[in-house]
Amino acid sequence: MRPDYKNWVPKGMVLGFAVGTLAAFVLFLILGATDTVLHGTPRIIMGILLGAGTLVLLIATVWMAVLHRTFDYNGRRKLARTIIEGVADYVKIPEGGTGLDVGCGSGALTIACAKRNPGAVMVGCDIWGGAYKGVFTKDLCKENALAEGVSNVRFEEGNAISLPFPDESFDAVTSNYVYHNIVGHKKQQLLRETLRVLRPGGTFAIHDMMSEARYGDMQAFVQSLRQEGYEEVRLIDTTDDMFMGRKEARWLDLGGSTLLVGRK
Hints:
Blueprint: H1 11-33, H2 40-71, H3 79-88, E1 98-102, H4 108-116, E2 121-126, H5 138-148, E3 153-157, E4 170-176, H6 187-196, E5 198-209, H7 212-215, H8 218-227, E6 231-237, H9 246-251, E7 257-263
Parallel strand pairs: 1-2, 1-4, 2-3, 4-5
Antiparallel strand pairs: 5-7, 6-7
C-alpha cells in the first residue's frame, strides 16, 4: 500500500479547464467560424470573443497541466515533496511533546514531521473543504499515515481562523501554503492565531507566499515577535534555490514563498 498525497493541482481541475477549452472551441466553430447560425457583424464579433476565450482557456489548461506535473509526488520534479520535506526539517518536538500542522490537507506535512519526531505526537487539523473538498479528506490522512507506517499522528477538524485548541497547548506548530487561501482575514492575524497555541519554548515553521501584498510588512511583524520575547525568529526566502529558483517560482505563481521560523 502506497500513500496518496494527491496533487495540489488536482487532475479534475486540469480536466475541467480542458473541457472548457473544447466547449469554447466548438462554439467558436459553430457561431464564429461559419455563417450557419450567425451572419455578418454578429458572427464576426462572436468569432472574436469566442476565439479569444478559447485561446485564454487553452493557455490556462496548459499552465494547469504543467503545475499538476510539477507538483506530482511521483513525477520527475516532485516539488510538493521537496517543499514538505524541507519544511518538516525545521519542526523539532521534544520527547513526549505534541506538534500541530495547521491545514494538513492530505496529511503529508503532518506525517513527515511525525517521522522526524518519533518520540512525539503530531496533530493535523483541517476543515477539509473549499476548493479541495472531496480531494483532501480526514480518512485520506489516516490512510496515508497507515501506508507510511506512522502511528504517532492524529487528525482533527480545525479552522485556522479560530483553532479549537487552548492557549499554549503544543510544543511546535507548522503549516504549508494555507493562509494565502483564506480570504477576508488578515494574514498576520492568522499567524498570531497559530502562535497562540504554541507553548513557551516551542518552535514554529510556517511556509506560505508572504508577499507584502498578501501579508503586509513581515519584517515589522518579525521585529514585533522579537520584542515580545520570541527567539531565533527569521524569514527564509525559499525561492532562492532552497525549494525552487526565482524563475520557477514566478512561472508557478509561487512568488514570495517564505518560511517563517523561530522559538516562542
